[in-house]
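Regression check, zinc ion case 402:
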Amino acid sequence: MRTGNLVDLQDHNLSRILELLRENGGISRQDLVEMTGLSASGVSKLVGELIDKGLVVEDTIISRNKGRRAISLKLNPNSVHAVGVRLARHSVQCGLFNVYGRALFTTTRDFRTRSLAEAKSTLEELIGETLEESKARSLKVVGIGVSAPGPMFSHEGRIVLTSNYPEWTGFSVKEFLASRFDMPVYVEHDANVSVLAEKWFGKGVGSNNLVYVMVDRGVGAGIFYDGKLYRGNHGIAGEIGHTTICYDGPPCECGNRGCLEMYCSSFAVLTQAREVLAAETAPDGQLTIDVIARMAREGDPRALQLVTEAGRFLGIGIANLINAYNPERIILGGEMSKAGEPWFRAVKESVRQRTLPEVYSGTEIHLSELETDPAFLGTGSLVISAAFENVSELQTHDVTGK
Ligand SMILES: [Zn+2]
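Current build output:
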């Protein structure tokens, strides 16, 4: 019998091979030997196991440089599938995702109220419909992945605080869904799911140390460290919105004072903008970040001042993040990223002023360019990554479409 450690090591190696095949479709066993440093016989055995489980298929024969021929390998696109759910303040979005994290089917419903009962019934209905769709297509689903607004205790899948949604506070999304659906449920806050989406599809491809900073109504970071999500002890790592940038600043709902997000979230900017700009620019009261960004582009000094100041404050938080985690790449997304070039320049300039020159020049800062909301796009990846990490527990009957 194998010991636990050997199973762990085996799972780790299987997971590495699956990740490499996901990132580079159509590579040979020899390529895997070179990429992993494992022995040829070791790779052959691991690949054999993945083929037996139906996760990997042999593809067309490819010619190798030295004139030899080798069989190429790829993930079986019809193997494992995931249900991914984005629980947002105003809506639920649900999709069926394949092993590459691509959505095959999606559906969305807006909330009419802020009640917990409506959130629960909508989640249950949309996930139920998506599972029906998977049955109709004869696709095996291995789990449900959910992104929810932070802060949350991700181990318990429990929402800690949702501003203005008192009924949601303390709601365990994980417990609720596990009681309704007989499969593993993974719940993460939206920034953690977004960093996975960037890692699989966006500016994070090829990097194992990246941070996604979601600058929205609140500010949170998803940290992908050493090839994995970094969650911390309670699962609230990355809540940079509640780090202090003004030690005697105004009190925040979280109990701290002068929190970063009070100075640079879209909520903070819109609140200030209503005072500074509202009268002449928004007769219908619909002042948005888009509107402010357009005014800044057109040269309105007050709008420009608002977005650059918000950018400078965010830069302070990002400089702190760099000093704490030293990531290779930082990707900015969320509503504030629509504030455009003056905002982005202010963020980078503020980071530059507050970090060591060599550290600044060695850290990439990007704007997210994903077209689909990464907090939804990454929910399938959340489930598929978990399945990859525990391949030995994945039964052959979990896999269809061999
Ligand atoms: Zn706070």
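Comparison notes: The radius of gyration is 23 Å. The mean pLDDT is 91. No diff flagged against the previous build.
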